[in-house]
Write a structure and sequence with these properties.
Helix content of chain B: 25-40%
Shape of chain B: elongated
Strand order of the largest sheet of chain B: 4-3-2-1-13-14
Structural class of chain B: alpha/beta
Number of helices of chain B: 9
Oligomer: heterodimer
Radius of gyration of chain B: 26 Å
Radius of gyration of chain A: 96 Å
Distance between the termini of chain B: 79 Å
Amino acid sequence: MRLHALTIANIRAIEQLTLTELPDTGVIVISGANEQGKSTILDALTALQKYSHTSRAKPVREMARIGGEAPEASATMTVGPVTFTIEKRWLSRPRAALTVTAPTPANYSGGEAHDKLQEILAEHLDADLADTLFLRQDDMGKAVAAAGIPSLSGALAQANDSDGGVDAAEDDALMAAVQKEYLRYFTAGGAKNANYKAAERSEEQAIATVKTAQASVDELNHYVEQVATNERDRDRGTHELPGAEDTLVAARVALDQVQELNTRVEATAAALDRAQRDRDDAQRLVDERAAQRERLADLTAAAASLATDVAAAKEQAEEETTKVEQLRAALRQARDERGAALEAVRHARAVHQRLVDADELASVEELVATIAEHDATVARLRQAQPKRAITDADVRALDDAERELAVATALRDASVPKLDLSGSGPVTVDDVAVDVPSTVELIDGTVIAVGSVTATYRSGDTVGVEAAQRADEAARIVQELLADLGCSDSEQARRLRDDHARLAVELKEARDERSRVLAGRDSDEVRAQRDRLAEGLREDIEGTVGSVAEAKADVEAREAERDATDLAIQRIEQELEPWENATAAKQYVELFTRHDGLSDQIKNVKRSLDAAIETRTDEALAADVEAAQNAWDKAKESAEQAEKALTEADPQARHDAVDAAEARVKSITERINQATVTLAKLSGYIERATGAAEDLQEATAEAEAISHKLAGIARRAEAAQRLRDVLLRHREVARARYAQPFADELSSLARSVFGPDVQFSLDDDLTVTERTVGGATIDLHNLSGGAKEQLALLTRFSIANLVGNTVPIVVDDALGNTDEQRLQQMGGLFARMGRERQVIVLTCFPQRYDWVPGKTEYRIEELKRG
Amino acid sequence: MTVTFVHTSDLQIGMKRGFLGEDQALFDDSRLRAVTRLGELAAQHGAEFIVVAGDVFEANSLSRQVTGRALDVLKALPVPVYLLPGNHDPLVADSIFRKTEGLDNVHVLDTTEPVAVRDGVEIVGAPWLTKMPAGDLVFNALQPLEPTDAIRIMIAHGQVDAYGNDAGPGLIDLDYVRSRLGDGTIDYLALGDTHSTTRLDERVYFSGSPETTDYHERTGDDQGGESDSGNALLVSVDKKDIEVQKLKVGEWTFDALHAQLDSREDVDRFLARLDAYPDKARTCVKYALTGTLDLTSMEALSVGLDDRAPVFTALYERTRLTELYLEPGDDELETLTLGGVGNAALTELLSDVDDDVARDAVNLLFRLSKEVAK
């Protein structure tokens, strides 16, 4: 394709633009500032080819200028063998016209024009190639997949064919089928897929189930073995038990025999005891009889000896009795005499006392009379004492008061007015009749009535009054003192004072005299003494004559007689005492009694001995002793034999034997019971495990089936994997071979920019993935912006070179990141590419392309001007 | 006086086989039907009783469903049946034979004491009373016995040492058995354990299992595995004569096939051989194939097997023993619509003949390329 001319009207920033007579080859640089419509040129070119004039697609609507005319464009170009001009107007009054000038001229308009254009383009233009070589700014830095471009594929295939290579894409359908088969077992990433894993898991589970079932069977087998063991234990026990029981019975019998021996030992021992006692009894009887005899002899001897003593004692006792009786009679007489003497003493004393008492009574009575006299005197004097004794002080006070009175009266008398009454007739002064004549002392208010006349005295001054008052006061005091003393005047008072003093002295003297007479005694006591004495003397006593002194002498005479009798008695008692203590009589009685007792004893012993002999003679007793000894000897022998037999029987061993036999029976029984219980338990376990073997068989069968199935899956999976691997490997080889010219071309172009050793890695889509320079490999994405845009251009250039001269290379600004040196190198390449085709460059910076020789330059402003 | 009875063994009731899949139930049912069939044959041939020489059950601890049904079937037999505990169902604690009390015509031979079947006929068993018996059970049972005028049938389970086995515990001393057959202590030894019908002596037989339990290896003349199962023996014996007749009982066929396939004709013959099995619903076949086939033959084989697999209870390849190579003819390769990459891959895979995976990959390539071409 070659673009010959292009006009644009009313599209975005461009109101009008005309580009004509474009060269068929070479670099065409269209430059202009931003917003001048460089990209609009490309958009218009695209719209002409792609959008029907009637289209209202978004890119079409976006072409319209705001408020401007309908967008229009026309282009003249050669595509393949066809050269034509296409004109289109969109949106408002749309129209289209296609004018074909070669090879066969023809004109089309409207829809036909668009359709015919599409036909031409479809037939002669590789749209993918055109798109690829149409680099917009956005495409810079992006890798391009060269593989999808038909004309490139054709070119590479042609090269490949001529080289004898195979078409890598030829088996794509088979590859897809293999991949599909592969994906039945694997994921895209190459791991086993869910189904495959599920099958493996199923197998694992089945194996686990088998294992579990096997464990159950093993457990069951273990129980079964235990049953056998326990049955064996039980049966052996059951078999052994009767023998053990027999042994036990035998052991018990043996033990019972020991018991008999034991009983016998006890019995013989008891018999021995009895024999011993019998023997002792017999011997004792013999011994007792001998003792009895001995005692009789002793008693008889003693009695004889005692009889002599008794006779001597009797004589002595009789002598003693006589003496004692004599003395006792004398003593009785002496005592009688003494009684009489005592009575005489008593009587004499009584008489003497009475005489003494009578004397005392007379003196006491005299005293009592004296006291009575004194008492009377005292009483009389006491009676005579005044109630108010007038003292010297009283008299002095009265004298003082009378002196005051006398003074006051004198004063008053001197000052008080007086009324001398004369005449007759009744006169009252202050209602008191007064004799007339008289003189009336007047005081203020004194009322004197004389007849019907009443005169009231009104004193004019106070002098007379005060004197009167003092006199009255003094008179009152005198009167009070006199009243107190009970006297009518002071004289009397003085008299009384003297009387009173005398009476007091008399009383004191009377009292003192009384006290002296009593001499400290109490008068009552004196009187009581008198009463006592009087009472004592009331009874008369015979012989009471004479004086006290005579009586006293009589008393002394009688006491001397009494003392004489006492002495006589004392003497007799002294004499009697030894006789009283003499024991001859007592001894005699004792000896006699003892002798009497011995006689009785002798009689008793003898009787007893006789009776015993009568019962059992001495010979018989001796025989008894001998017999008892024999019996004892026999019992002793029996006991020893029994003891020996018992010892020989070894009771402990027989006990042990029974214990052992019992233990064995017990053990066996327990073993049987234990086994029986265990068997019951095991029976339960076994019952519960019913079906275990079948479960194992089923699990095994299931596992076998699942393993079989898994083996099938694995086998198919492996086949698919192997086939895929082999196919992929071969496709890779084919592809590498197919892509080789592209890689070579790219390297060839790039060498001038990146250096002679540059290499590229391409993927299946022939997309550049890595660049290697000087051994350093860099992923495309990690290349610098400049390198990326250079590589983008180089890739397109390579494709264009391989495809040949069919489509122009259009570059909408580029190399913005490229330094001066690279610009120079790229400029050379641009020029090389322009040798055989149109290379249209749209740019803001035309200087970037200064290094491109032979270029054709347009300024967009100029194009707009037409 | 002659006595006639049915000798069988190894019923293996409760046996599970992984390759049976959902047909296990059918197999279970057949094992029970075999018992019923034994009863019918006994009645038909006038047998007085049936002896089962061990392994009535596959194992002791089976589900109540299985044992219950088995005991029902045994109970329903028209003649008395004598069951001997074998190595699979020894008379230990979990033995099913502990549950057979009250079944009138079912007798468990739980001791070595002779049992009188009727006047002049006795059975003596050598039961397995433990899982691992010590010594020769038959010898132990025979030793205390004296020669007798009665016809005495002995029932035992196990291998014999005269059979090329190493002498060891549990093996039966066949020479001793012969001596006791000779002195008239016993008149027939009914053995179990080997699942194929086998004659050891004029009067000593393995009856074989009445219903198949395992594959019969069929490799030319080498008839290994369970070569003759599915039978019972009808035995008529007296002190002088004996007649043993093999009766077909089983319904199932387990065959392990080996075939050399080198041409389309071989493939067709093999497929025809499969088609010839009469009762495919009770037939399991596993095959090991060897040889080299071209593309067409291989495809014919593959399709043929795929078509037949669902019909059989089980039809599957023994991968380990299969060595079948694909060698496309030149004309075949041309007809393949493979591109350059596909061709290169095929060539590489075909060169790797010893690799099973590569062979499978080739087959897959063919299948997929055909699908793509369609």
